[in-house]
C-alpha cells in the first residue's frame, strides 16, 4: 500500500514542479537555518565536563563595601575572590577537592637556537586542579600540594605545546622558559579543552578554543611576577598590581568538588559562617554568599553570547513561517484534487487511506527538504567557521544533529501535512463525481 | 467593487485565508524587528571614534629579555628602549607623527578608572578609559582639541603602571568634562582620578574608549589622556603615516624596529595594525550578524510572496468557471483583476494588524531579554506598507491570469 501512496505522491509532486520546488526549498532553508544555529547553540551551551559537572561548585563571597556594591543593581555577587579569602577557603579544606586559579598571558621562549618567543595562555592554580577537573595526563603528573607552598618552579604543559616545542616526545624533566624564568616540566596533558572553558569565565576573555598551554603553581608564578589577566579593585583603593596578595582586589576564581547535596549544603553553611566571621572581623560589610553548580554558574553568567541566542530564535521563526507556507500550499493542492479524491473514495478507498496518501506526500516534501536542508546547514556552518568567533573552528555537524535534522524535517512536514490531509479525507465523494 | 461577494467567497476558504494571514503577520513581526536590529548594528559599526582613522597605525611589541622594571635603574632602561623605538619610528620618511600610546580606539586593550570631584569618591563618579602617552598623543591620533592646550614636553612623566605617581595634568573628552561639570567650565579644574588629584588642561571633542564590549557601553566616549610614557616589558605606539603611505609605513616600521631588536615579539596578527584593520576585526561579528539577518529577511519575504502567489493561483484555478460566468454577465477584465487585488488587500490588511501586534510583542520580549531598544513606529509603519505592497505584487500575476479567463468558459462543462 505504502508503495502505491509513494507512487501517487511522486506523481502529484511532479505535476506541479514549480510549487514542489518552492515547498522543498522553503522548508530546506528553514531547516538549514535552524540546524546551523542549533549546532552553534549546543556547542556553546554544552556541558564542559559531563561526568563531573554536578559535583563541581563555584563559591562566591562579597567583600565590596555596602555603598559601592559590585553591581549597580546590588543583586549580583562579585565574580572573583580576593587572595586572602581564596587562601582561607583553600586551606580550610572543607570540600573533597578545591583549587583556586587565575589566568595569565605568558611569554614562552623555545630552547632551540633561533626559537622566537611567543605568547601563550597560562593558568596559575593549585594542586587539585587536575584531579578535580579530570585533566588527563599523557606523561608525568601534576604537582604535589607541598609544591604549592614551597614555590617550586614546576609546570604542566598542554599536549599541543609539547608537540610544538618537543615534537610530542616525553618532555618530563626538561625545562621551559616562561616569562624569562626556567620552569621544570613535570607533566604533559593529553588534549584537554573543556568547551566552554568554564574555569576561565571572568578570569580571561577566552571562553572557547583549543585550551590553555601552561599550568603553573599559583605561588611560584606570582613569585616570578606573573600577573593575572583580570584584576578588579573594590573600595576607594586603586588597583595595586604589585601587592595583589594584600590589596583590596579580586582576581581569583575558586572551584570545589562536592559529591552530594548534603555536602553542598554543608559547604554553603560553611561559606555563610565564614562571611559572618569576616563581617565580625570588619573585613566584610556584607555576609551574603553563593554556591552555584557548574551548569547553573554558566547559565547565570550567560556564557552563550546574545547574538547566538537571537540567531537561534530568528531561525525558529523562519522555520515556523516556512511550515505555515507549506501548509498553505499543500492545502491548496489538496483542495484542487477534490475530484481525484472523490473518484478514489467512490472506488473504495477509505478515509484512512486518503489521509495516509496525503501524509506520505507531505513526508516526501519533508525528507527532500531535510536532505537539502542538511546541505544548507553544512553551508551555514562553513560560514560560521570563517567567522572570527572563538568557537568558530568547533562548529561541525555531529551525528546527533545529523539525525535531528531529519527528525525536524519529518515532524515539520508532517505537521504541515495534517490539515491538508484531514481536509482531503473529509471530502464527500458524491458531489465531486456529480460535477465531473 | 462591492465587498460582500468577496467576503462570502473568503468565508468558503477559511483555512487558506487564515494561513496567509498568519504568514503575513509572522513575516511582518520578524522582518521589522530584524531590520531594526540591523539598523542598530550599522549605526554601532559606523559611529566615529573621534580619531582621524586614515593613515593611523598601532604598533604593539615586547622586547626580548627586557629589564624587570622592579627598580629605578631598570625602569630607566625600559624608558630608554622606548625612546629609541620612538626616535626610530619618527625618522622613517613616511611617518608624519608618532607617540607613545598604551591604547587605541576599538583595539580592546583598556585601562580605566573613576574620576571624582573629591578624594572620597562621593557624589559624582565618572568611569573613563585612560590613554597613557606622551605630548604627541593627541596630535598623532588626530583628536580634535576644543578647549585648553596639549601637554608640554616637560609635563610627560614616565613610570611603570604599578607606580603610585599621580598625573598632575590631564586632557579629558567632552563627555567626561560634561559629566563632572554640567555647567561646562571644566578647564583648569582639579578632579580626582582614583583618589589622586589632577588638573584638566584640555578638552577634546570626542574620543571613543578602546573597548566595544557591553560592560563599557554606558561610558563609551569617556576618555582621558594621561601624560605618562608607561615603562613595561611591552610598549605600544601610535603612528600617523603621511597621507596614503599607510602600507609603506607598516613595512618600514617592521623592518626598522626589528633592526633595533631582532628578537622582539611583534606578531603579524596584532603587532602592527592599521586602525582600519582594527576596526574591521572588532566589528566583524556585528557585520556578520547584520548580514545574516539581512539574508534571512530577504528569504522570508521571497517565501511569503511565493506563498501568496501560489495560494492565489490555486484559487484562480478553482474559480475559473465562476470567473467565466462573471465575464459572460458583463464584468470587464479589470473588474476581475480588481476583485483579486481587493481580496488580497483584505487578507493582507488583517495580516498586518495581527503582525503589528506580534511585532510590538516580539520587540517587548527582546527588550526584556536582550540589549534592544524600543522599535520606532516608523519601522512598523514602513513594514506595514511594505507587506501590503508585497501582497499586491505577489497577487498580480495570478490575478492577471484570472482576468484573462474568457467568458466562453462559462458555457463549457467545468
| Tally of individual domains of chain A | 2
What is the spatial order of strands in the main beta sheet of chain B? 3-4-10-7-9-8
The termini of chain A sit apart by 27 Å
Unreliable runs of chain A: none
Would you list the SSEs of chain B in sequence order as H and E? HHEHEEEHEEEHEEEEEHEHHHHH
Strand content of chain A: 5-15%
Number of helices of chain B: 11
Q: So what's the overall shape of chain A?
A: elongated
Give a topology summary.
The complex is a heterodimer of chains A (436) and B (414).
Chain A: H1 2-15, H2 17-45, E1 56-60, H3 83-92, E2 97-109, E3 118-125, H4 129-132, E4 137-140, H5 145-150, E5 154-157, H6 159-166, E6 175-178, E7 181-189, E8 214-217, H7 218-223, E9 232-233, E10 249-250, E11 253-257, H8 261-281, E12 290-293, H9 294-300, H10 306-336, H11 338-346, H12 351-385, H13 399-425, H14 429-435
Chain B: H1 3-11, H2 14-46, E1 56-62, H3 72-90, E2 95-100, E3 111-116, E4 125-132, H4 137-141, E5 145-148, E6 157-159, E7 169-173, H5 174-180, E8 190-193, E9 196-204, E10 223-226, E11 228-230, E12 234-241, H6 246-260, E13 272-274, H7 275-282, H8 284-318, H9 320-328, H10 333-369, H11 377-403
Parallel strand pairs in B: 4-10, 6-11, 7-9
Antiparallel strand pairs in B: 1-12, 1-13, 2-12, 3-4, 3-8, 5-9, 7-10, 8-9
Quick take:
The complex is a heterodimer of chains A (436) and B (414). Chain A has 436 residues and is of the alpha+beta class. Chain A has helices spanning 2-15, 17-45, 83-92, 129-132, 145-150, 159-166, 218-223, 261-281, 294-300, 306-336, 338-346, 351-385, 399-425, 429-435, and strands spanning 56-60, 97-109, 118-125, 137-140, 154-157, 175-178, 181-189, 214-217, 232-233, 249-250, 253-257, 290-293.
Amino acid at each position: 500500500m505504502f508503495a502505491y501512496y509513494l507512487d501517487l505522491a511522486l506523481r502529484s509532486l511532479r505535476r506541479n514542479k514549480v510549487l514542489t520546488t518552492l515547498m522543498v526549498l522553503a522548508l530546506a532553508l528553514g531547516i538549514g537555518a535552524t540546524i546551523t544555529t542549533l549546532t552553534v547553540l549546543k556547542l556553546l551551551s554544552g556541558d564542559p565536563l559531563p561526568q563531573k559537572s554536578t559535583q563541581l561548585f563555584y563559591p562566591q563571597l562579597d567583600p565590596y563595601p555596602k555603598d559601592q556594591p559590585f553591581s549597580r543593581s546590588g543583586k549580583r555577587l562579585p565574580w572573583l575572590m580576593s587572595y586572602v579569602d581564596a587562601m582561607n577557603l583553600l586551606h580550610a579544606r572543607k570540600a573533597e577537592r578545591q583549587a583556586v586559579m587565575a589566568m595569565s598571558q605568558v611569554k614562552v621562549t623555545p630552547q632551540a637556537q633561533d626559537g622566537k618567543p611567543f605568547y601563550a595562555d597560562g593558568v596559575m592554580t593549585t594542586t587539585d586542579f587536575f584531579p578535580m577537573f579530570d585533566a588527563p595526563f599523557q606523561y608525568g603528573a601534576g604537582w604535589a600540594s607541598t609544591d604549592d607552598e614551597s614555590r617550586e618552579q614546576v609546570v604542566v604543559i598542554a599536549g599541543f605545546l609539547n608537540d610544538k616545542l618537543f615534537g610530542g616526545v616525553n618532555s618530563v624533566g626538561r625545562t621551559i622558559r616562561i616569562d624569562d624564568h626556567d620552569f621544570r616540566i613535570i607533566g604533559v596533558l593529553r588534549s584537554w579543552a573543556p568547551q566552554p572553558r568554564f574555569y576561565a569565565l571572568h578570569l580571561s576573555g577566552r571562553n572557547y578554543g583549543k585550551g590553555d598551554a601552561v599550568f603553573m603553581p599559583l605561588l611560584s608564578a606570582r613569585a616570578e611576577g606573573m600577573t593575572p589577566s583580570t584584576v578588579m579593585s573594590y573600595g576607594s583603593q586603586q588597583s595595586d598590581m604589585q601587592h595583589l596578595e594584600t590589596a583590596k582586589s579580586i582576581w581569583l576564581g575558586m572551584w570545589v568538588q562536592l559529591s552530594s547535596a548534603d555536602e553542598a549544603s554543608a559547604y554553603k553553611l560553611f561559606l555563610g559562617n565564614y562571611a559572618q566571621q569576616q563581617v565580625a572581623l570588619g573585613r566584610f560589610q556584607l555576609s551574603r554568599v553563593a554556591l552555584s553548580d557548574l551548569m547553573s554558574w554558566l547559565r547565570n553568567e550567560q556564557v552563550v553570547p546574545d547574538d547566538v541566542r537571537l540567531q537561534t530564535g530568528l531561525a525558529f521563526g523562519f522555520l515556523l513561517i516556512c511550515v505555515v507556507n507549506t501548509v498553505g500550499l499543500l492545502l491548496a493542492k489538496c483542495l484542487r484534487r477534490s475530484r481525484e479524491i472523490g473518484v478514489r473514495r467512490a472506488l473504495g478507498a477509505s478515509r484512512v487511506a486518503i489521509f495516509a496518501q496525503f501524509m506520505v506526500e507531505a513526508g516526501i516534501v519533508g525528507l527532500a527538504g531535510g536532505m537539502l536542508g542538511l546541505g544548507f546547514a553544512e553551508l551555514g556552518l562553513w560560514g560560521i567557521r570563517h567567522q572570527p568567533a572563538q568557537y568558530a573552528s568547533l562548529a561541525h555537524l555531529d551525528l546527533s544533529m545529523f539525525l535531528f535534522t531529519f527528525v525536524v524535517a519529518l515532524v515539520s512536514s508532517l505537521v504541515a501535512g495534517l490539515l491538508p490531509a484531514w481536509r482531503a479525507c473529509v471530502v464527500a465523494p458524491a458531489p465531486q463525481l456529480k460535477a465531473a | 467593487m462591492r465587498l460582500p461577494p468577496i467576503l462570502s467567497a473568503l468565508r468558503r476558504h477559511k483555512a487558506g485565508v487564515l494561513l496567509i494571514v498568519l504568514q503575513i503577520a509572522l513575516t511582518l513581526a520578524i522582518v521589522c524587528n530584524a531590520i531594526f536590529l540591523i539598523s542598530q548594528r550599522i549605526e554601532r559599526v559606523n559611529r566615529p571614534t573621534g580619531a582621524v582613522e586614515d593613515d593611523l597605525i598601532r604598533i604593539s611589541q615586547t622586547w626580548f629579555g627586557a629589564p624587570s622594571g622592579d627598580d629605578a635603574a631598570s625602569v630607566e632602561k625600559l624608558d630608554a628602549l622606548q625612546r629609541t623605538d620612538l626616535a626610530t619610528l619618527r625618522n622613517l620618511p613616511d611617518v608624519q607623527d608618532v607617540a607613545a600610546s598604551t591604547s587605541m580606539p576599538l583595539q580592546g586593550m583598556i585601562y580605566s578608572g573613576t574620576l571624582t570631584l573629591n578624594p572620597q569618591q562621593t557624589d559624582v563618579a565618572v568611569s573613563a578609559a585612560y590613554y597613557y602617552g606622551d605630548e604627541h598623543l593627541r596630535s598623532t591620533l588626530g583628536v580634535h582639541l576644543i578647549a585648553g592646550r596639549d601637554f608640554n614636553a616637560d609635563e610627560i612623566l614616565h613610570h611603570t603602571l604599578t607606580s603610585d605617581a599621580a598625573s598632575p595634568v590631564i586632557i579629558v573628552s567632552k563627555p567626561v568634562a560634561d559629566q563632572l561639570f554640567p555647567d561646562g567650565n571644566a578647564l583648569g579644574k582639579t578632579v580626582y582620578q582614583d583618589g589622586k588629584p589632577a588638573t584638566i588642561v584640555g578638552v577634546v571633542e570626542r574620543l571613543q574608549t578602546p573597548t566595544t564590549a557591553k560592560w563599557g557601553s554606558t561610558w563609551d566616549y569617556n576618555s582621558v589622556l594621561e601624560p605618562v610614557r608607561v615603562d613595561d616589558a611591552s610598549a605600544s605606539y601610535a603612528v600617523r603615516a603621511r597621507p596614503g603611505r599607510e602600507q609603506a609605513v607598516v613595512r618600514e616600521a617592521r623592518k626598522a624596529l626589528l633592526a633595533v631588536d631582532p628578537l622582539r615579539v611583534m606578531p603579524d596578527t596584532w603587532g602592527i595594525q592599521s586602525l582600519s584593520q582594527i576596526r574591521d576585526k572588532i566589528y566583524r561579528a556585528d557585520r556578520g550578524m547584520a548580514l545574516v539577518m539581512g539574508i534571512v529577511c530577504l528569504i522570508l519575504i521571497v517565501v511569503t510572496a511565493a506563498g501568496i502567489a501560489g495560494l492565489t493561483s490555486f484559487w484562480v484555478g478553482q474559480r475559473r468557471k465562476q470567473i467565466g460566468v462573471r465575464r459572460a454577465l458583463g464584468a470587464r477584465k479589470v473588474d476581475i483583476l480588481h476583485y483579486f487585488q481587493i481580496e488580497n488587500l483584505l487578507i493582507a490588511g488583517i495580516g498586518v494588524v495581527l503582525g503589528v501586534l506580534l511585532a510590538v510583542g516580539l520587540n517587548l520580549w527582546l527588550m526584556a531579554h536582550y540589549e534592544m531598544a524600543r522599535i520606532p513606529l516608523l519601522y512598523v509603519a514602513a513594514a506595514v506598507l511594505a507587506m501590503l505592497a508585497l501582497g499586491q505584487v505577489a497577487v498580480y500575476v495570478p490575478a492577471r491570469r484570472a482576468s484573462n479567463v474568457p467568458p466562453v468558459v462559462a458555457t463549457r462543462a467545468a
